[in-house]
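Anyone have tokens for DUF3365 domain-containing protein? Sequence:
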Amino acid sequence: MRQTPKLHTRRWERVALAALILLLAGLPLAVWLDMQNIAAARLRSQAGDLNSMITSIRSYYGSAVVGRILENHGKDTQVIHNYEAVQGAIPIPATLSLELGRVIADKQSNVSYRFISDYPFRGRAPHQLDDFEKTSLASLRKAPEQPPLVLATSSGTASQVRLIAPVLMSAACVQCHNSHPDSPKKDWKVGDVRGLQEIEIQDEISTSLSSFKYSLAYFLLMAVIGLGFILLQRRQNAVIRGMNGELASANDFLASVSMKISHYLSPQIYKSIFSGEMEVSLRTQRKKLTIFFSDIKDFTALTESLQPEALTELINEYFTAMSSIAIRHGGTIDKFIGDALLIFFGDPETKGTAEDARSCLRMAVEMQNALAELNVQWRKRGVEAPLMVRMGINTGYCNVGNFGSADRMDYTILGAEANLAARLQSIAPAGGIAASYETFALVRDIAAGHALAPVHMKGIAREVVPYAIDGLLDEDGNTTKVFSHSGDGHDLYLDLDRIDADAARNLRGVLHQAISALDNKS
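Reply: yep, here.
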């Protein structure tokens, strides 16, 4: 399952690298397309400027030269189209335009100029018009005032622009054409479209590209650097992925180990160690704790009556149930000593001395109730003798922390107060709880109990007055009762707090019948 994100990451890296390569490969195409647009715009502007220039020259020539000569009735000077064959003659404006176009074409190899008309003078070859020229002539005669018509084309690495503008008849041109013997049309008017003035400019895109050689070299260099950076990042990512894989394996191993270790430690101790709150060193401190000690009555006899496998299963079920209750109430499980259980409250977490004692007592009562339910289950499975557990609780100061050696430690408690909890357990009735006066004073608001005869215990200098816990108090101050007894031929577990009125009436009838039967048997 861990490989799936890595595969997705590698796939996206390959896609990103392929996309970058395609984008870099497309850079020349993008530049070429831009150059086409730039060249076409530049040629369009150049053709327009050239058209305007020739038109202005022709207009000036027609008005300032030809017009003045015609006003003088052509004395000493002729204005004719074949001016080269006549001494002292000058060309008409149309011929001037043709001559200018020829001169421009000779000087500029990429520029051509045509002055064409569908009304050529007699003796001249008719002009061949292509579709664009025919369409333009028809359009301009309908609307002479419109802007010049432009046709831009591209072929391979070359761009071409053709610009067509109308040749309008001026007063001098009308006078000349209407009176000239070779003119095919004699009814010209000022403003009529005589023909077309076409300028064609071609440009090789490679010429424009050469102007961007430094930019293209820069882009190419950046592309190489970017590609190298990506390849380096890809290599580093592979290394990081390998390291992450090793770390993930190490983390899995550590998680597995820590999970196994957690089963050997109380949850509070485990949490404190792995969160860094507790130092793993030989260090103890003195705290006021409430200590709980329990032991199974006649456990030796039980071991003789059960097979080892059955005994192991039974004792593990018992400790599992008791441990779950202890953890739920916040107790720190110190250790299992054979069939005995040592738990303390107040370290490493505490709710205060009084509340720690109350939590411990509630835990003990719940354990006795849970044991009664377990006895019913065990009896159904063939365990003849029920388990009876004695419990002792004491509150006092103990040393708590890490005991042992630098190589192996045990987080536990030491002190006379811990020993007193074990002594109290030994005098508690079977299935009962005995608490010291120090503990009972802290829990008397939630529990009922009665004093037992004072006793002297080994290792305890003072006289100890134990208290037998009768039960917890409910909200009205009444003692909650739980009756539990098991033996050959009977199992009794009765928790009055969990029985409602209807169940109590039914149960009362059953118990009356049972009492009557017992009376008859006696």
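The radius of gyration is 57 Å.
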